[in-house]
Specification:
With 69 residues, this protein is mostly beta strands. It is built from one helix and four strands. The chain has one domain. Strand 1 and strand 2 form a beta hairpin. It starts with a strand and ends in a 17-residue tail after the last strand. Bound molecules: zinc ion. The site of zinc ion (ZN) has 7 residues, from loops. This is Anti-sigma-F factor Fin family protein. It holds the Pfam family Fin.
Length: 69
Amino acid sequence: MVRYVCRHCGRRMGQFPGDWRDPVLGLAALTPEEQEEFVQLDDRGETATVKILCDYCLPVPWDDNLWYN
Ligand SMILES: [Zn+2]
């Protein structure tokens, strides 16, 4: 089981019922340092919590036209 949680506001983004090492997710391809930063395993190593940024906390792309309107 993999749960996706926003690392900024804690909002739950969704979950994946399979193993966090599933190649589809690409998490197993991360370096050990990256896994340590983004993936938290529970005590049994079965449920992984992945810290990402939700839509609300993603940096807003800078709109160059803003100054000229
Ligand atoms: Zn958020």
